[in-house]
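Batch manifest, entry 17 of 40.
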Amino acid sequence: MRRAALISILCLAAPLCASAQFAPSMGSKAACNINDSVSVKSYGAKGDGITDDTAAILAAIQAAQAQWECAFVYFPPVAAQRGYLIATPFVLPWAFKWTEFFLDAPLILFQPLIMNDYYVIHGNSASQPSQFASNLQTLIYTGGFQGAGGAAIQIHGKYTISFENLRIEWTPAGVDGILIDQSSAFISFSNVTMENDSFNLTGIMIHILGGFEYSFDQIVLSQHQNATAHTLQFEVDPMTCSSMGIAAVRNSVFVGKAVGIVFNIACGNGGPFDFENILYEDGSESFLNLEESFNTNVDGVTLKNIQMSDATANISLIHTKGLLTDDVEVHGSWGFFTPINSGDPINDLEVWSPLDVDMGQSSLYVFHGPDGIDSTMPIISHQSNSAPARAANGTHRPRFNYPIQLMKQRLAFRTRN
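Output type: structure tokens
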């Protein structure tokens, strides 16, 4: 694998890499005291879902940023079916320190929430900031969104932002849930669920244009069964046309008909991309769609333990449109009658599977199967650090660190009809 070289190229193309190892000397986030929080209600927020709380929230943020090394902004509980309303376009103020939202009540977005550097939006609903756990989610409701810009939450050329323990629901027709563009970087999602219903069949849930270092862990993206938009779409930013990549999706669930992940590399280059322990439910197109244009390429893709469940018959794991997809590894991923690749061939494809699988359109591959190694290209002897564990009989058995049964439990909400 040529990942170190790829990362070096991306860093050369992105000015953020030159800035002190991606993190300012702003003090350790771990040293922050969660009890030093500022309540938005202390600055006039009502949380009734009717009053515009934007100005009160801004005042609480500024007060927190002025007092401590780390700024904690607390959103206390409110009455049932109520929340803190943002009815004015809200650009979060920048400060040279970590700023964390602790949502103990829903956030209601009628206008866009525009992020800035070094923000964490953390939800839980555990009544006290010091008691926040990691297994709960707080609602960000976008069903009444009326704002411009095409997305409820927007990140424009920013970096070091985290979304944790959130449930984002019901963006209206044609509106994207989260838009990330202008070469943003170091954006992470952990324990985040996003769901759309029949009112929004064309909005992309997470739409990323350019940038690098994106991390998704324990996310659930669920589209309506008639949706035509993708749940997660990456594109090169047309404003910069530079390389993009270093993205990882792990321990996650994708549900709906048009739920495939798309990488549209219209210019520049893309990669590396990693996908691990993912349930792909009810899909009508390939799990991973790589679309490349003339003189562009995707290089360095790893898929490990991708389960395609109840998908349309005979769709492939990967679909490629473009002749420059290189260096792809597949470990223990399968679906009934699922070929590995459709569309244009992949150069340098290596597959580990306990079952015989169809290589699809790929002509240059190495297949480590139940009967040994089948190869149409020279084999370089090396020990892969990511290869699945071997069973006693020598065949490869995939390791499901995040069990499919647990993933299915997280589908209990399902998509509304």
